[in-house]
């Protein structure tokens, strides 16, 4: 899911335990909301539609994309993460080690290129997006999931950072839109209005529906689309 350029947090060191977060109470709630939001940003898949996921990590999101009917290529800079993804296996998906800032694919080679919580951890988000746009090409689509710096959780992560988030650069909705709009017709939505304490997670469905319906800017997760 999250992948970096050299010099930031070493995600390879947590590869074997990375998926455990999705089994926590918080992980289950956020995963459900985020997948619903990303799913709305994806086109209806026709057989053979090619999807490139950059920063695929252990393949958690790759599995979701494959289940929606895409032929998935997942790349990550961490060999340890790719080893876990390959070991777990995802139908109709190929995994390989590659740098998101220098993608080893020709122009216009994918129908859709996706990055979920990747831009926060790369040295040059613009360069990464440029590579994504090159691989998607005219008529393609870029989908980005990013952490919102203006959410309660985003503020907490900035002022009480773990080893992971100490190196992260989170975005506001306007900042992400500013980046994406250079590459085509862009939209950014804010979702995951969640009070992240375990005893209040039951309120997430109602709060998320209210936040999305009122177009509030404080959700934990940003979903950006670019139509090339």
Can you give a write-up of this model?
With 228 residues, the protein is of the alpha/beta class. It has one domain: Rossmann fold, CATH 3.40.50. The protein is 32% helix and 18% strand. It contains 7 helices and 7 strands. The chain has a 7-stranded mixed beta sheet with strand order 3-2-1-4-5-7-6, sandwiched between helices. The longest helix is centred in the N-terminal third of the chain and has 17 residues. The two termini are 24 Å apart. The N terminus is likely disordered.
Number of helical segments with 4 or more residues:
7
- The overall strand count is 7
What is the H-and-E element order? HEHEHEEHEHHEHE
Specify the structural class. Answer: alpha/beta
Task: Using the coordinates shown, work out and report the CATH topology.
Answer: Rossmann fold
CATH-scheme architecture: 3-Layer(aba) Sandwich
Distance between the termini: 24 Å
Biggest sheet descriptor: 7 strands, mixed
Strand content: 15-25%
Large-scale geometry: globular
User: What is the residue-averaged pLDDT?
Assistant: 88
Indicate how many domains the architecture comprises. Answer: 1
> CATH homologous superfamily - what is it?
Vaccinia Virus protein VP39
| Residue share in helix | 25-40%
* Rg, nearest Å: 16 Å
CATH class: Alpha Beta
Side by side, the strands of the main sheet go 3-2-1-4-5-7-6
